[in-house]
Structures are given as C-alpha cells and as structure tokens.
Design goal:
The complex is a heterodimer of chains A (460) and B (362).
Chain A: E1 19-21, E2 27-31, E3 41-42, E4 49-50, E5 55-59, E6 65-68, E7 73-76, E8 83-88, H1 113-120, E9 128-129, E10 144-148, H2 159-162, H3 167-181, E11 187-192, H4 196-207, E12 214-218, H5 228-234, E13 245-249, H6 250-261, E14 268-274, E15 282-287, H7 292-296, E16 305-309, E17 316-317, E18 331-336, H8 388-392, H9 399-407, H10 411-416, H11 427-431, H12 438-459
Parallel strand pairs in A: 1-15, 10-11, 10-13, 11-12, 14-18
Antiparallel strand pairs in A: 2-8, 3-5, 4-7, 5-6, 7-8, 9-13, 14-15, 16-17, 16-18
Helix pairs in contact in A: 3-4, 3-6, 9-12
Chain B: H1 2-11, H2 25-35, H3 54-76, H4 79-102, H5 109-119, H6 127-142, H7 155-166, H8 168-172, H9 182-186, H10 203-208, H11 215-220, H12 232-244, H13 250-270, H14 278-283, H15 287-294, H16 305-325, H17 332-361
Helix pairs in contact in B: 3-5, 3-12, 4-5, 4-6, 5-7, 6-7, 7-17, 12-15, 13-15, 13-16, 16-17
The chains are: A alpha/beta (460), B mainly alpha (362).
C-alpha cells in the first residue's frame, strides 16, 4: 500500500531515549478517570491504611478493572475531588477486606485463569480492541492480535526507551500473552519500523516460538502507521467485521510480563515528557498518581504553556482538575501558547514555517522545525474542496465528501463511503486550510453509528 | 503593530452587539482579521494545526497572477489597474452587503474573484461594464448559492459570460492594440473611455482566415486578447508556481492541457484547414490562463482527486471542439462553465464507485 501521508515535519523537543526514574513523592494523587476508564466503585474507606498493590477502586463498566495502590500508605478518598490521595509511608495494614456493599460483579469467575490474573494486577487495560481502541473484552476470543512495536505520534513514550535493557522481558511478555489468549487459531502480527530496534524486537518475538502464527509487518515510520486499525485494513487481518482483533503496545507487553511472569502489579508508568516548551525532553518513570506539576516544574521553560495528555496528534487536554499521572498516560506534551495574535501572518513569506501545501516557500529553504503552538491560525470557513485531506488520509478515504454528508446529516451515505474505516488520526484536521474540525466530526459520527448498531443488536 | 492593536481595541466596542455600527460588523471583522490572525486555540486533537489558512491560500493565487498582471500593464497600460480597482470596489460592496444580510463573516474567495475578473475581459471594456459584470458574477454565480465554498459556477466566468451575451458588440470591439515598446503605454495616462478600442482580430480569428501569428509573439505577448491571457510566458510562470505550491491541483491542469494538446494534434492531422497546430492552439487564446487559473478553482471543480482528472479532460476536449467545429473562435469560458455543471456528476460517479468497492469489501 502506498503511503499518502508522507508529510513528516521536523519537530523540536523530541524526548531522549534514556529514562529518568523520579524520586518517590510523599503524596500520590490517583485520578479516578482516565481516557477510557472511570473507577467509580471505591473500595477503601477514607483514612484506611493500604498495602502496595491493594485495590483502591474498580471500574464497574470495564469488567472491574482495578485501580491499585502503587505504594503502601494511607488512602484519603475525600481529600481531592476526582482523586484518591495516597499518603505514602509505612503503615500497619490491619483491615484486609474490601468495603462491603456494592460487590464487584466482575467477570473474573468466568474468565480463564491467566486473564483474570492479568485483570487483577492492572495489566488488562493495555489490551485494546483494534477497531475501536477501547479496552478489549476479556471474555472474547481474538482472531488476531497486533503487537505494535512503534509509537509514531510525537512526544509519546518511545519503544527505544521502554525496551532499554528489557528486550528479553518483551519476549517473555509475548509468551505470557499467548498463554493468556489460549486459542490456537489466533494469528499474531507484529508492527515494526526499520532499524536496529525493529531487528531486536523481531528477534525477541521469534524467540517466543509462535510457529507459523506470527507475521512481521514493516511499516513506514510516519504517523499514523502505528495505528492498529490502519494496519488491520492494510494487511487484511480480519476476514469479517465480526472477527475480534486485539492490539497491544510495548508498554502493554512489558506490563503483561510483570503481571503474569513476576506477579507484580502494574503501578508504574514510563511516560515521555516533551514538546517545544520543555527544556530537556526526556522519558520519566514514576508511579501512577505522581503529581504532574512535580514532573513538569523542573523542565518547563515558562508558565504560558498548554499541557496535553498524550501526543499532540492523538492526545487530549490534561483534564483541568487532574493532579496526578493517570494509568493510561503515555506522554505529556507541553506546547508554548504565546499570548496575542499574529500580525499579518498570512502575508509573511514563511521562512520559519512549514506547510503541507508548500505555500510557505518551504521548498526553497532548509527544513526548519515546525512551530508547535495550539494556535488555530485562521477562521473556520465552508469547505473549498482543496483536496488536501484526501491527499493525506492514510486510510484512503474521501474526508471532504464525508464532511459534506455529515454536514447534511446523511448518515447512511457516510457509512457507505467508509466512515468506519476512519482511523481518527487527525491528519485531515491538521492540513485543512478552512480549519474544519474533521476528526472530531468523524469521531462523533462513528460513535453514533456504533451506538445505533448496539441498539439494533439489542433489539434483535 | 502596537498602534494597530490600540486602534482596533478602540474601534471594536462600536461594532459589538447592540451598538449602532453592529450592522457593518462583518466588514470590521474582516479588516481586523486581515491585520491580526484570529485568537482561536485548538480545543481537540490534533492540537497543532498547519500554518496555512484560507487567506494565505487565496493570496497564493494572487501572487501567481502577478506576472500576467504586470505583462498586461506593460501591453495595455494603466487602464488594467483601473479595471481591477473598479472590480474590487463593485464586487467587494456586494460581498459586504451579503455578509451583512447573512450576519456572517466575509469569506476570502472574493480576493481572487475581484482580481481575476478584469483579467478575463477584453482590455478596452468600459469600466461600468466591469462593475456590472462583477456584480452579476458575484450575486448570481456565488452568493445565490450561499457564498464561497458553496457556489456551483466560477463567479468570474459567470460575469464574463453575462457580458459577452448581454453586450456582444461592445465586447467584440473592446480590444486594444498592444504596446510595442515600454514607452507606449506605461507613460501614458489611462483612458477612462474606450477611445482607442479596436475591432481588430485576435490570433484565433486570424488563424481561422489562415493567417498565423508567429509563435514567439504568442509566447512573449503583444497580441490581441483578453487582459490576462496576452503573454503566454507570464501565464505559464504564474501557473507553474501555483501548481508547485499545491494550490492549483496538477491533475486538473495536466488533464486540461494534455487532452487539449492531444485532441488538437489529432484534429490538426485530420482537418488541417480548420484546426491549427497544437502548439499554436495552446499558446493562443485563453486556454493556458483557463487551465491554470480558472479550471483549478477548487470550489467549482470536482471535490475528489480522481474527479479532477475527468474534469480536466472534459474541459480540454470541449474547448477544442468549440474552437474547431463551432461558430465561436474561443471556447474556454463555455468549456469551463460546462465543466462546472458536470463537476457534481463526476463526483457522484467517483463516490458511487468508491461505495461499491467498500460494499464488496464488507
């Protein structure tokens, strides 16, 4: 398949490969909500002493995935809205039992042993459904599992850093995963880029002896080719729309190894801290709940900046009240947000900027890093059908036509035109000169379609 | 810059909701945004956006038109500048009125329409006709459909078509004898009337009579024709620039010029008396200007990239057919307007094909 999205701007502020282990803080702020999870079922009393790895809360909507205490200490459930605050320190744990009452109606009992173990140790949240990027349903049997060994959104944790000295663990993780999946008919796909790391990873995966059930795919190292849904479409990994396909990243593989081989709870995260507003971009390793301010304060250049949870193409704003690192965080991107408005910006020759359309004379000058700011830089206008979105769409869709259909509320036409194949990479929104929020529009339309499908299947 | 900031700070309250000047708020907003980029920040992924906006996009078209514009000033004098000023003033007023009625912002599309419209007219067109044409083009060609981004027809060509049907005699006799030296027109005052207008024949008319204008003349300019099309070199320079920076889609340009050249060559072999050689045909008349600047108008061409090929081929083919087999010596305007008509149809075909492919894969 050709790669239409070959636009690869230079970026400043990529995190270095080495990882800094942060000193343990006195207090951890464990957020009760993250991108996919909501730990609404609190399992400890205010002021209760907990040991490391004890369940603090569960997500009742996701098979009771637990929020685990990263360290021993005293849990405060009322101290900060939306968080469980953990005062770290040696404590006498007397009361082992969880809170009575809302008992976990988790799927544990029905789950195969290994999957239940993985779920209890906080490792299941790394197993995702390749189509929806939601957390995979542990009761299903996958037809294929995609192991994604590259991270191409800028400023997210890089496999190089995660795998530093842990390639063997990665291989063990795969072995553990195969036993957790259990099914013999499952095909494994490894997505790797090029270079030394990809050879190391490929070698490690071969160690796992998957005997003909493993396929290695080398993909271009251009965003968004690390996207599992895109890979699934490109390499035709599913035969029908009902086939279950899971995907797991490098962090997930290592978490599975920790949980299933060593029996350790997954309570530490390695995240990238990068972006133009960071003095020395790096990877840091810290327990879940580590105060975000403590991570950023020593690195940030000034305080007029915007913090994004994840990479700038696919992340989300750091929730306004969120104090601590959440369990799904892969990176913190910090962008300069200069106050004020640009003076006659559209008339400038553009020696210092890059654009997909080459309108800023970029072809004539040496490549310069793109100025990464959250400025939209133009008014939202009706689509002029310039065709940039079609040129850049990695899934080969017609975003401008989909936009027109959705604008006219022609849901069926949008569906027929492959709306479900949209991988929500955001490149169309990025290039749009009319500043139309295409990704957001497609994302919500896909969500609506999925809800309608669910309703329909319920009715049947 | 600080001065401007202060000035806008003082002026802004007068145009806000409930103030007497609120009616002209779109005009104020357009002027403010011309100086200062809007203050909006991204609120959803992707959090960084490409530096290109629609103002820049349209500005690139104007930059690409500059060589043709300068060539026309050289050959036809300062009158061209007057025509452009009149076009901007008259069309801009209509654009502003519509924005006020709609209570919407003024879109950037008019930046190009106002500049390109005089360039497709004969150089001695009376100024009042320029005004009438652009007003008709903007209202009927664009605003009636909902403004930039929603128009079916190229507004400038609708205006031109209206003038050539409404005032055929004036339009046919509005040519100017091009300058032969720099002092000819550059030092002369622009004539407001059409005193020196001539009814001489354009190269295409001459070719119909078997008199061929030499190719170097066509390349350099100095032949009778519409304001912008006279110098082929200037048009090609601007057009290549526009294609290189990605604003004009290369598929449309190659489709149009390619099909035009191929069909011209075929017809030249079959009917040497009626059809001039492809080189001559390409360099004379408005085909180059049309292919680079009018056919590539993104709004009125098909939205799909595959569709742009078909659209270009349609325009190139129809232009040759009109030129060779009809009573008109020039067919670019009609061919592009016909292409505009067919654009939704072409898109529909592409989209249907795509839907079938997805349905099979499902």
């Amino acid at each position: 398949m050709t790669s239409p999205s070959a636009h690869q701007p230079l970026l400043a502020g990529r995190p270095a490969d080495n990882t800094t282990v942060l000193p343990a803080p006195d207090t951890l702020y464990l957020p009760l909500t993250s991108r996919r999870l909501c730990f609404s079922d609190t399992r400890v009393r205010d002021g209760q002493a907990v040991r490391a790895g004890q369940v603090l809360a569960r997500d009742p909507d996701h098979w009771g995935i637990p929020l685990l205490a990263p360290r021993a200490g005293t849990a405060r459930t009322m101290a900060l809205d939306g968080h469980i605050v953990l005062e770290v320190g040696p404590v006498e744990v007397s009361d082992e039992s969880d809170l009575p009452g809302v008992d976990a109606k988790t799927a544990e009992a029905e789950l195969p042993g290994k999957r239940a173990d993985l779920l209890q140790l906080g490792g299941w949240q790394f197993v995702r459904d390749a189509r929806t990027d939601a957390i995979a349903d542990p009761t299903q049997t996958p037809r294929a599992v995609i192991i994604v060994a590259l991270a191409l959104d800028s400023f997210v944790a890089q496999p190089d850093a995660l795998l530093e000295g842990r390639v063997l663990d990665f291989a063990r993780g795969i072995a553990a995963l195969t036993s957790a999946v259990g099914s013999t008919g499952c095909q494994y796909h490894l997505l790797v880029g090029k270079g030394k790391l990809s050879e190391l990873v490929s070698g490690a995966v071969r160690e796992a002896k998957l005997h003909g059930r493993l396929m290695i795919h080398h993909v271009p190292q251009v965003y968004p080719h690390d996207n599992a849904q895109l890979a699934m479409q490109t390499f035709r990994m599913a035969n029908s729309a009902d086939d279950v396909v899971w995907c797991i990243g490098v962090d997930g593989m290592l978490a599975i190894k920790d949980a299933l081989v060593d029996g350790k709870p997954c309570v530490d995260r390695t995240v990238a801290v990068g972006g133009p507003a960071i003095q020395s971009p790096r990877h840091v390793r810290a327990p879940i709940g580590h105060p975000v301010a403590d991570i950023l304060a020593p690195l940030t250049v000034d305080d007029t900046c915007r913090v994004i949870n994840g990479g700038f193409m696919s992340g989300a704003d750091l929730a306004p009240g969120q104090r601590g690192l959440d369990g799904e965080c892969v990176g913190l991107t910090v962008l300069d947000d200069p106050p004020g408005r640009e003076f006659v910006g559209f008339m400038r020759p553009g020696l210092e900027r890059q654009s997909f359309s080459r309108c800023f004379l970029e072809a004539l000058f040496p490549r310069v890093p793109v100025r990464l700011t959250p400025v939209v830089g133009g008014e939202e206008r009706a689509c002029v059908a310039c065709g940039y979105c079609e040129q850049i769409c990695p899934a080969g869709l017609l975003p401008q036509v989909l936009h027109r259909y959705l604008y006219n509320e022609q849901m069926d036409d949008a569906h027929a035109l492959g709306l479900n194949l949209c991988v929500e990479c955001g490149l169309c929104s990025y290039v749009c000169p009319c500043k139309i929020e295409l990704r957001e529009q497609f994302s919500s339309a896909k969500h609506q379609l999925r809800c309608e499908d669910d309703d329909a299947s319920m009715a049947v | 810059m600080k001065v401007f900031e202060k000035l806008f700070g003082v002026a802004r309250p007068f145009f806000e909701d409930g103030q007497p000047l609120h009616l002209v708020h779109p005009v104020y907003q357009a002027i403010e945004n011309l100086f200062f980029a809007p203050n909006a920040r991204t609120h959803t992924a992707p959090f960084v956006r490409d530096a290109l906006d629609l103002k820049r996009y349209m500005t690139m078209v104007i930059i690409a038109l500059l060589p043709a514009f300068f060539a026309s000033i050289y050959f036809f004098g300062w009158r061209v500048l007057l025509m452009i000023i009149v076009s901007y003033a008259a069309g801009g007023t209509v654009e502003c009125l519509f924005a006020m009625i709609r209570k919407d912002e003024i879109a950037e599309g008019f930046l190009v329409t106002g500049f390109i419209f005089p360039l497709v007219l004969p150089p001695a067109t009376p100024l009042w006709m320029v005004a009438v044409g652009v007003v008709f083009g903007v209202i009927v060609g664009k605003e009636a459909f909902g403004g930039t981004g929603r128009n079916l027809f190229n507004a400038a060509l609708v205006g031109r078509c209206f003038l050539s049907i409404g005032y055929p005699a004036t339009m046919a006799n509005a040519w100017l004898q091009p300058a032969t030296s720099a002092t000819d027109r550059l030092l002369a005052l622009p004539s407001l009337g059409a005193a020196d207008a001539v009814s001489a024949a354009t190269p295409l008319v001459l070719a119909g009579r078997g008199e061929m204008v030499p190719i170097p003349d066509l390349l350099w300019g100095g032949v009778l024709g519409s304001v912008g099309e006279t110098s082929a070199i200037a048009v090609i320079a601007g057009g290549v620039f526009l294609v290189a920076c990605g604003v004009a889609n290369w598929r449309t340009v190659i489709g149009t010029l390619g099909s035009f050249a191929v069909l011209s060559a075929v017809l030249h072999e079959t009917f040497p008396a009626q059809a001039p050689s492809p080189t001559f045909a390409l360099l004379s008349g408005g085909i180059l200007f049309g292919a680079f600047f009018m056919a590539t108008d993104p709004v009125t061409s098909p939205v799909t990239l595959t569709g742009k090929w078909a659209y270009g081929i349609l325009i190139g083919t129809v232009t040759v057919l009109i030129r060779v087999f009809s009573g008109y010596t020039e067919g670019v305007t009609f061919a592009i307007l016909l292409g505009n008509c067919c654009a939704p149809l072409i898109d529909e075909a592409v989209i249907r094909g795509r839907m079938r492919r997805y349905a099979r894969a499902r």
